[in-house]
Amino acid sequence: MRKRILIGAFAGIAFVTLAACGGDDAATNDATGAAAATTTLGTATTLTSSVTTTIARTATTVSAVVTTTTIAAAAGGKVNANTASIAELQKAFEAAGISQALRWAQEVDEYRPYPSDPKWGKLRQELGKYNIAPDVLEKIISLLEV
Length: 146
Hints:
Blueprint: E1 2-10, E2 13-21, H1 26-74, E3 79-80, H2 86-95, H3 101-110, H4 121-128, H5 134-143, E4 144-145
Helix pairs in contact: 1-2, 2-3
């Protein structure tokens, strides 16, 4: 009996499937198929390893950027009003003791982008719609940069 070996990869997992086929030269086909399966499986494993390494490196880079931004904000630094994530804005606001930090982070995010304006006219106008306390507004602005 002849066997056909199918190799594939799905979601980074290599798999081998054996399917029975008719035929008289089973030993030759089995040996040839097994060699092909081993080679292809090795390639799939290498590909999976490469993809895993790339994902890990990307995640590390993203984590480093987020951590650097968060640390800078917590240490009295500023976060970029146009590029910081809502989570980064929220952490900076919380570190500064701003109540409802998540709400204000979402509002800052909603009205992006902000022009390079030392008086923050656009942000003042948009947050002013919510009757924000003047001291809270000033604290938020003190944490932001463009």
